[in-house]
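Re: export button greyed out
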Amino acid sequence: MIRELSFIDVLYLIAATRWTLALTAIAFLGGGLVGLAIALLRVSAWAPLRWLGAVYVLVVQGTPLLAWLFVFFFGLSIFGFTVSPWIAAAASYSIYAGAFLGEIWRGCLQAIPRTQWEAGASLGLGLTQQLRYIIVPQALRLAIPPTVGFLVQLIKNTSLAAVIGFIELTREGQLTTATTFRPFTVYLIVAAIYFALCFPLTQVSRRLERRLHVAR
Amino acid sequence: MSLVELTDVVKRYGTHTVLNGVSLNVERGEIIAIIGRSGSGKSTLLRCVNGLEPIQGGTVTFDGTIVNDPGTDLRKLRQHVGIVFQSFNLFPHLSVEKNITLAPKVVKHVPPAEARQLAEAVLRKVGLAEKIDAYPDQLSGGQQQRVAIARSLAMQPVVMLFDEITSALDPELVGEVLKVLEEMARDGMTMMLVTHEIGFARKVANRVVFMHEGRIWEEGPAAATLARPRTPELETFLSAVLH
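Workaround output, generated via the alternate export path:
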């Protein structure tokens, strides 16, 4: 049944955007936790931990996100697990974002000169205290621009979750197209909504980058 | 028993031997100037005292504690051994006050109000009381180095190590930092300083240690050793530095 594209469809698309945002939030939170762990593994003093972190990053960055979505959604059902799109998406995106955020944050941690660790150690601070009071606060400032930059990528990449039936902005666009048969207009609207989400973030990221550069 | 005792200390980086059997005792209240060419091992020697450099042979003891014993709690030891670096190494994200109070608060659990007073007191000692709320990048090199000294003093160390602390400074800023050291010397602080300021070493140090090729080549009372070097190496070094 084909019907006219109407204003209500646009509202539906905007409403579906909340699932895009929710998925982004989950991915960012989950990925943030994984990423923090990976970054700490990668700067660990113990070599096997560093290797573990490196292997994780290597594997995840070398495989498409789509493959992870398929593994969790379709793959696990073969073993009798029914996995909801939410769980599959949350797991896949956390794994994926964790590798990238981990690498970004590792770089920021390593950008802090060794002498800062030494200064802390010389004052009697333990390793965790050096990290918490000296290294992380400085690394955090460096990390903000690239992290926001990755967040923009993440928002756009949530559209991949449409393939496992997760109804977010892109999937809603597909459904709207199916009933109205107006792919050009519908996908333009979809693209415009993504742009409206990403553009302000890009601007913020640029401004932060400029400001933090001046501060250095 | 001396406060700091180094016995046959050997330090290698790979196949390169930096310290080749160094023995040195430092008594309480003594001021020792360590001089020598770059690469002679003088900075490494200093960094062995607070365990920043692991050693491959010999022993380093501080107040009876073996520094290079794996069972030694270096965090505890470092509360008593202050070090000031050539490049200041202040924490750029923290104000002068926070730079000074971080370790007392975190390591010694000094309450905040008391920590602020402590910061004020040590800043007065280095003549920078009015800079307590400034950030490191708002200070000149000389001021930053004085804050670094104050930060060390706030832990009330028993001995202070100074690793070429005036080498990164513009010539006109060296004086203000050396003045602080002189005052500390008058207060009876035990100090080991690696320095290129021969004039200052002669004036303030009790003893001079000349390092050459990873060994203590010559040592003795400051004035006599610098005036009448016994080895040609020290003589050459002095004539090179004093021009």
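The helical segments of chain A are 7-42, 47-61, 65-78, 85-111, 114-122, 127-157, 169-180, 183-215. The button fix ships in the next patch.
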